[in-house]
Amino acid sequence: MGLHHPDRDEIQIADVLHALSDPQRLSIVSQLACESAPRRCGAFDIDVTKSTLTHHFRVLREAGVIHQQEEGTARMNSLRREDLDARFPGLLDAVLAAAGEHAGAGDHQYA
To answer: Residue 1's pLDDT band (boundaries 50, 70, 90)?
Structure first.
């Protein structure tokens, strides 16, 4: 059974904002925003249990914020920037910029 990803026109702003409201999910998104290549689930600097991390990825995927693709035993994650920018122009950049203003020294820079 494949992973459910909402189509672009099914992405709802309430779901996106809910997904981005959690600091750990926002950290995942900001890390993805800094890279063009998909990342494995285990390659994120998030200090939570594996089951909690899986939950965060599911919330992000079902909200339409990320795309997940299975490659062998790995699940690769990428940001759905094009879809989010088409549905809600400027939203992702505004959220990442606001998160960057509150980030401490040494945290990720947002493009």
So the answer is: low
Report which of 111, 99, 35 is spatially closest to residue 66, judged by C-alpha positions: 35
> Cβ–Cβ contacts within 10 Å for residue 68, how many?
18
Q: How many residues are present in the chain?
A: 111
Using only C-alpha atoms, what is the Rg of the chain?
13
Residue 109 has pLDDT above 50, yes or no: no
Q: What tens digit of pLDDT does each residue of 28-38 get?
A: 999 999 988 99
Q: What is the pLDDT of residues 59-77, one digit of tens each?
A: 999 999 999 999 998 999 9
Fold for domain 11-100?
Arc Repressor Mutant, subunit A (1.10.10)
> Which backbone phi and psi does 54 adopt, to 5 degrees?
-60, -40
> What are the extents of the domains in the chain?
11-100
Residues 65 and 80: beta-carbon distance below 8 Å: yes
Sequence-ordered list of residues with C-beta below 8 angstroms from that of 51, at least 6 positions apart, any chain: none
